[in-house]
Amino acid sequence: LAFHDALTLLPNRRLFNDRLHQAMARARREQGRLALLFIDLDKFKPVNDQHGHGVGDLLLQSVALRIEGCLRGSDSAARIGGDEFVALLCNIYTPEDALRVAEKIRVALQEPVVISGDISIQCSCSIGVAIYPDHGNTEQDLLRIGDGAMYRAKKAGGNTVEISAHSEEPLALDEVASAGQSIVRLTWKAAFASGNPEIDQEHRELFRLANVLLGKAATRGEFREQFDAAFDALLTHVVTHFAHEEQILTQAGYAHITEHAQLHQTLIDHALGLRHPADDEVVTLGTLLEFLVNEVVVRHMIQEDHKFFSLFSNIEGKGPV
Question: What is the pTM of this model?
Answer without folding.
Answer: 0.53
